[in-house]
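Residues pack. One example:


***
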Amino acid sequence: MSDQLKWFKSSYSDDEGGNCVEVALPTPQLTVHIRDSKIPSGIQLRVTVPAWTAFISAAHPGA
């Protein structure tokens, strides 16, 4: 399933191998997929769109 998703890193990530998170937004799934960029075939966290929206709102108030 993850091969069919379009993954992207945060604009805050760099290319120096640091701790990065990748996210695949739903198209047409109603689930946001989250994974460690260093282990793309590893475990994925999946959350609902409302849960993801609440997380982003809490992490970046006013954004």
Q: What stands out?
A: The longest helix spans residues 49-59. The chain has one helix and four strands.
